[in-house]
Amino acid sequence: MMKLMMKHPPFEYSQAYARCCDEADPLRGLRGEFYLPVHQGAEVLYFTGNSLGLQPKTVRAALETELEDWAALGVEGHFRGTHPWVSYHKRFEQPLAALVGAKPEEVVAMNTLTVNLHLMLASFYQPEGKRTAIVCEAGAFPSDQYALETHLRHRGFQPEEHLLELVPRHGEHTLRTDDIVAVLQNHADRIALVMMAGVQYYTGQAFDIAAITRAAHAIGARVGWDLAHAVGNIPLHLHDWGVDFAVWCSYKYLNSGPGGVAGAFVHERHANNVDIPRLAGWWGNDEHERFKMQRSFRAARGAQAWQLSNAPVLALAAHKAALDVFDKTSMSALRAKSVHLTGFLEYVLRTVMGHRVQIITPSNPDERGCQLSLLVEKQGRQLFEYLTQHGVVVDWREPNVIRIAPVPLYNSFEDVWRLGELLRAYAAMH
Ligand SMILES: *Cc1c(COP(=O)(O)O)cnc(C)c1O
Questions:
Q1: Are 100 and 215 in the same domain?
Q2: What per-residue confidence (pLDDT) applies to 7?
Q3: Mean pLDDT, the chain, as a whole number?
Q4: 275-286, pLDDT tens digit by residue?
Q5: Which residue has the least CA distance to atom 1 on ligand 1?
Q6: What integer pLDDT is reported at residue 291 of this predicted model?
Q7: How many structural domains comprise the chain?
Q8: 50 lines ligand 1 (CB under 6 A)
Q9: pLDDT at 410
Q10: Which residue's CA lies nearest to atom 14 of ligand 1?
Q11: Could you tell me if the CB of 226 is within 6 A of ligand 1?
Q12: I need a surface site. Which of 156, 213, 390, 409 has the fewest CB within 10 A?
């Protein structure tokens, strides 16, 4: 942590400091790649890239290319299009592999996040004898909870008994890695699967994926990660960490548009196992036989074997344009800026709000991405509405949290300073 802190001058709450950081920021030009929404004639302060990333300006042209091919070629677009649709999903192997730290054949862009989670659970939740339990963090994103609960019920198990939820210590908001590992060891012969968020959507805590994966494997369990809030936010090395599978969506930090196409990772030790149980569709079939319309499924090699349907090209066109923006930088450059920018936000919040808010996100940069979650016990909703009226886009999560995510691709240090000024005015009135 000290080392990270040394990379930039000590924080200072001033516009001059913020501007100085922006001028020194090698990524400052990337903001111009995105459309910023406007509120009462001025660009908003957008801190909600953790919910819906901004639209890259290149998306429209990428969509038009596919629309024109469709208009001009009809069905022939599958083979003669600018980017032939029959192999469209392959455009995502390299860029997604780079973002999650995988081999190209270990990743695939397909479906939506919850669908992918179900597909992965069908393959990787394989209860056997006493080993039936699934472990997740308490307060997991509702869709993940529903997916886990329904897979348990599907196999005839009651979630109350077979879903083990990791709960923070009394008086704490986030989980300690040692405590997680202890739970795994204490239930070593009961656990079939550990399925957690890489970065928790509510608290903003980034879990130690490598250590938890190791601990889960040591007790003979499988491990899957929901990376909705991790991908494009923190550096990931899924292959080297030995993660069994992972899923994510593309509309948060990956900026690929509402309901955008999600992704999945399957480690190569499983991805090339054609006998693994799965829910199959024709696009996961060996591509050389896909159009022979044969009776029996023959799995393709790699994560693409989990595909169900032919690719949603229009949504994928937006996804590809959005991923191309990441090619202009690297996760390590984004992360370096992110650590500084979120550290500045934390400093500003403490300076102007003092004890009015409690930040429940860990203050150690290694344990968080860009998001800070503010616990606002009293009149939190009022603070949220004040910010909204002043052109600040943050979000409110029931029962009492405001999430603020400065995204290194398009947020500036001056954005954070301007938020600080609004909060200072608010604090003076309350
Ligand atoms: C955003 C998010 C989802 C959303 O699921 P969709 O299937 O994309 O609607 C699910 N799980 C987590 C952890 C999320 O953060």
A1: yes
A2: 57
A3: 95
A4: 999 999 999 999
A5: 228
A6: 74
A7: 2
A8: no
A9: 98
A10: 228
A11: yes
A12: 156
Q: Name beta bridge partners: 165.
A: 136
Give the Cα separation of 120 and 193 in Å (integer): 11
Q: pTM of the predicted model, to two decimals?
A: 0.96
The CB of 231 under 6 Å from ligand 1? The reply is no
**260 and 154 within one domain:** yes
Boundaries of domain holding 68 = 63-326
Asked if 158 and 78 sit in the same domain, the reply is yes
Has residue 165 been placed in a domain? yes
Q: Which atom of ligand 1 is nearest to the CA of 226?
A: 13
Q: How far is the CA of 301 from the centre of ligand 1 (A)?
A: 27
